[in-house]
Design brief:
The chain has about 200 residues and is an alpha/beta fold. It is about 30% helix and about 25% strand.
Length: about 200
């Protein structure tokens, strides 16, 4: 499986750290270009490589973790995703002012889907703080929970399997319109909750 990550801020970098921890190869890309990733690549080691946005977008599963207002620019020119899985790890708010965006009554993932035509969008990896995403998923004798939502059953199954490989407990919340709204920040009841699942 090939993993691409578009966006290397706090969340994108945390996802990359989690991936290389389990020996998963990742291609990282951001709008500043591969040369801007030298420090992060040195930290991550041989399992991570820098690429263009176009290269990262060709992976089997593509994570997008970009400031909300920058998403159209970050994905510009990627016109057809040809059924690839895209994980929406974004929230419709930006620091430092934490200004929220008017989504016209839609969930943020429904709006995000418009930027990735032809993709199978799964909402995930957006509700935990970065240090929890990249840290040990075991806690209090159980597994930290990662929520996911989406409209394509097979895409959700693939992302759920990846979440399990990372050591987290995957909890499916249903569709993008319903489940995606539950983990959306601001507005949803689940963001920032550090929940643990016990067998």
């Amino acid at each position: 499986m090939k993993i691409g990550i578009i966006g290397t801020g706090n969340i994108g970098s945390a996802i990359a750290r989690a991936m290389v921890r389990i020996g998963q190869d990742v291609t990282l890309a951001n709008r500043r270009g591969p040369a801007a990733l030298d420090g992060l690549l040195e930290e991550l080691g041989a399992k991570a490589r820098a690429g263009t946005v176009e290269e990262a977008a060709k992976a089997d599963i593509v994570f997008v973790a970009v400031n909300w207002s920058k998403i159209p620019e970050a994905l510009a020119g990627l016109e057809n995703w040809s059924g690839r899985i895209v994980v929406d790890a974004n929230n419709p708010i930006e620091a430092p002012a934490f200004r929220s965006f008017d989504l016209g009554g839609r969930s943020s993932s429904e709006v995000f889907s418009d930027f990735v035509p032809g993709a199978k969008v799964v909402k995930a990896f957006n509700h935990l703080q970065p240090h929890l995403l990249s840290g040990d998923p075991r806690a209090e004798g159980g597994q930290r929970v990662l929520f996911l939502a989406g409209d394509d059953a097979q895409a959700k199954a693939n992302v759920s399997q990846l979440i399990s490989r990372l050591g987290f407990a995957a909890v499916d919340l249903g569709s993008l319109a319903q489940g995606g709204r539950l983990t959306q920040f601001p507005g949803g009841p689940l963001p920032t909750l550090n929940l643990v699942k016990f067998d």
